[in-house]
Structures are given as structure tokens and as C-alpha cells.
Amino acid sequence: MTDPATRVAVVTGAAQGLGYGIAAALAGAGHHVAIFDLDAAACEEAARRLTDERGASAVGLACDVRDRDAVQRAVDEVVERWGRLDALVNNAQETRIAAVLDTDDEAADAVWRSGFLGTLHCMQVAHPYLAASRGAVVNLASGAGLSADPGYAAYGATKEAIRTLTRVAAREWGPDGVRVNAVSPSARTPAFDRWQDEHPEEAAARIARIPLGRLGDAELDIGAAVVFLTGPSATYITGTTLVIDGGVHYLR
């Protein structure tokens, strides 16, 4: 029988990479974890890995966060399975890299719908359950938005819109007992490793910019911070962005 006191977390876009690392950290901290991802087979495999290799309680649910009805069905299934929801981590995001003059409507719409609207949908659907548990939201920001990196017109702008959404929700939902924060991470992922193989000099230059001299670990660095922000040690923290990138960016 499921322990009704065990905390429950949803992580979107968590079939691999950074999202999986965050899901693994939450599972390691004792949460039941639901992995949402577009790829049904991939999210089921990720949940199986957490279950078989980590002894975690995890489920993978195919969910297109761009579709609010799909989000409603997936979140309802999580609550039906485990009886509650304590933490929502919005990591799902399509990435399109292009300069301002090269960003077309299709690319901008894809980034916006997967990032901002996907985050908004998940927050709206999860809110009543999070209010009931006095839970927390963590949204994913990006250094590309903090420093307005060239080539990240749609992506950086969307990530900054998500930070504004985070702050507004923190003010509106504080009376409900729901905390809403953002993290701006830098972590080694399979996608970075592929890019590093193709562009070794650029990758070396990027790592050299990091004062701590390395990329973060998706689970041990980024995931651990998310566990902190959603847990009992951070109950007086809301509306902030925690920059977890080894010192590259800072909030002015």
C-alpha cells in the first residue's frame, strides 16, 4: 500500500538529460516520481530505470505539455495513483537556435508553446493539488536568457518569460501556501556531450568560462538544488531564481 505521507513529484521533459537527473534526485530523496515526456517509450524506460536501478517508486506518462487537456489527464492520473502532489518541476522545452533576423514564426511558436505555455498549463492544473499539500513549483530558466546570448532570440526570451511567470505566481499563490521558484542551471547532458564531440574547441571555451572549472552534474548539482527548493528546508523561499552554473551568470 502507498504511504500517504510520501511526497509526490512530477518532472516534465524527464525521459533523459537534465530532467532525468532531477527526477533521479527527487526519487533518491524518497519521492514518488512521475516522469512526463512526449516520447511514451522513453519516459516509460526512464521510470523503469529509476525503479530497477534505484529502487524508486516511479511512473512514466506520455504527456504533451502544449495540450492543457493532456496535462490535466496526466496530473489526475498521478494524484489517483498516489493520492497527492507536492512538487512540480517544469523542465520540458523545445529548443530552436537562431538569430533575431533568422527566427521565423514557426520556430518562435514551437519554443513558446513548449516552454511558456507548457509551464503555464502544468502550473494551472497542478495548483489545487499543490495548495492542498502546501507544495512547491520549480521552473527552469536559462543563462541564455540571463545574459541575452546571441542566437537564442526565441529561447532566451521564452525563458525570461518563464521567470516572470514564476515571480507573478509566487506573489499570487503565496497565500495558498504554494512556493514558486526558478533555477538557471548548467549541467553536462548527453546533448552537450554530442555537441562537444562535434565542436570540441567551442565546448572547451565554454567550460573555461566557468569559475568552478566544470559543468554541473544533472543529479548531484542541479537535482540536489531542486530537492532543496521543494523541501522543508526552503519553506521561506519563493519568487527567486537560483543560478546553478558554477559562477558564470549572476542576477543584477
Q: What characterizes the major β-sheet?
A: 7 strands, parallel
CATH class: Alpha Beta
Rg on CA atoms, Å: 17 Å
- At the fold tier of CATH, the topology name is Rossmann fold
The low-pLDDT segments are: none
Number of domains: 1
CATH superfamily: NAD(P)-binding Rossmann-like Domain
* End-to-end gap: 49 Å
> Would you count the extended β strands for me?
9
How many separate helices? 9
Q: How would you explain this protein's 3D organization?
A:
The protein is an alpha/beta fold. It has a single domain (8-188, 219-242), classed as 3-Layer(aba) Sandwich (Rossmann fold), CATH 3.40.50.720. Helix content is 50%, strand content 16%. The strands form 2 sheets. A 7-stranded parallel sheet has the order 3-2-1-4-5-6-9, sandwiched between helices.
Quickly describe the structure.
With 252 residues, the protein is an alpha/beta fold. It contains nine helices and nine strands.
How is the secondary structure organized here?
Layout: E1 8-12, H1 17-28, E2 32-37, H2 40-54, E3 57-62, H3 68-82, E4 87-90, H4 105-133, E5 136-140, H5 143-146, H6 153-173, E6 179-185, E7 187-188, H7 190-198, H8 200-208, E8 216-217, H9 218-230, E9 241-244
Parallel strand pairs: 1-2, 1-4, 2-3, 4-5, 5-6, 6-9, 7-8
Helix pairs in contact: 1-9, 3-4, 4-6, 7-8
